[in-house]
Amino acid sequence: MKKIAVLSVAIMVLSICGCSKKEAASGGEGASGGVDFSGKSVSCIVPYDAGGGTDAVMRFAANAASKNFKNITVENRSGAGGAIGMLYGAQSKPDGSVITMVTVELATLEAMGNNAGLTYSMFKPIMLLNSACSAITVRADDARFQTLGDFIEYSKTNKVNVGNSGVGAIWHLAAAGLAKVAGTTFNHVGYNGAAGAITDLLGGHIDAVAVSFAEVSQYVASGDFKVLGVMSNERLEAIPDVPTCKEAGYDAILGTWRGLAVPKDTPDDVVNELYNIFAEAAQSEEFVNNMNNSNNVIEIMDGQSFYKMIGDQLNLYTELVNELGLKVQ
Q: Which residue, 8, 11, 128, 297, has fewest beta-carbon neighbours within 10 Å?
């Protein structure tokens, strides 16, 4: 079995994002500082196009938390693999009026040197909400690929176009990591979020995507797509017949995470109150049902733990980027 140490040992997002809902509800960063958001309007920034997994998770959270604000809106600011939207959020007024859904690209873009000045230290995280592994997905009617092995072997002698959510974004690194392990190459096609890649796969303009299962699940259910393998430690409950990449002989484990953050100078009492609001929302029947129905995994972690995790992830992805030769010169 071929193996790359960084992928198989270090980058196990699903296993390190594991604070329970009970722990989150106990207060996380601390009790309310008395900040009242009921008369305030809040904008939630999604750094990718509408229709993708990040957009869905943010909208689920915003809807579940809406009773706590005068008004809460979701704004898509896509581009540069997520850097444009996250930079906008990081440079916003530090008063809690702008909340950014930060993703694993906060670490991967910095690791690659393709971050337009974006660093994770520009944020003060509120909480982690979600994590997901990469799912190698093709069209269901593509007779070339019945198994992940078929896909890999075909790519060794043919050009295979694999769509991702942007250059330097996690789905780019996931596909590149799999190719490295498998001893092959893919032609990576970047979009401003997973939605565009999925649309082009539906239209037959690319051969595959390496996005999360949640982002393709509706098309798998409709019979348009099939998943060849998932880049996780274990098979997904929603698709138990689909093997992990490791089971198929390619030891690659990669995935994303998504959470909420505000500019670094935001007062702690504001951050604590936002944590209390969204931790409660994350336990609501509405949020849980929406996440479950869309095959999104709920992973709760308080802001301080989340900040440390991002720093650890930066170190891990820096090692991976160097291993894969993807550092921007």
A: 8
Give me 128's structure tokens. Answer: 């982690």
CA dihedral 40, 272, 98, 292 (to 10 degrees): -100
pTM reported for the whole predicted model: 0.80
Answer for the pair 189, 161: CB distance below 8 angstroms, yes or no: yes
Closest C-alpha among 174, 135, 126 to residue 317: 174
For the stretch 213-258, pLDDT in tens is: 999 999 999 999 999 999 998 999 999 999 999 999 999 989 999 9
Pairwise CA distance, residues 171 & 175, whole Å: 6
Q: Which helix (H) or strand (E) holds 109?
A: helix 105-112
Nearest CA to 238 out of 132, 162, 160, 165 is that of: 132
Q: CA nearest 79: which of 44, 45, 113, 112?
A: 45
What are the Cα distances from residue 59, in Å, to 97, 113, 129? 16, 30, 12
Rounded CA-CA distance 13/119 in Å is 20
Q: What angle do CA 293, 299, 300 make, to 5 degrees?
A: 125
Of residues 144, 133, 255, 135, the one with CA closest to residue 207: 144
Q: Which strands form 297-302's sheet, in the order they lie side by side?
A: 71-76, 41-46, 98-103, 255-263, 123-133, 297-302
Other Cβ atoms less than 10 A from the Cβ of 195: the count is 23
Distance CA 26, CA 23 (A): 5
Domains and CATH numbers, the chain: 18-131+256-324 (3.40.190.150), 133-251 (3.40.190.10)
Provide the pLDDT for residue 2. Answer: 42
Per DSSP, 261 falls in state: E
Greatest CA separation found in the chain? 63
Question: What are the phi and psi torsion angles at 199 (to 5°)?
Answer: -60, -40
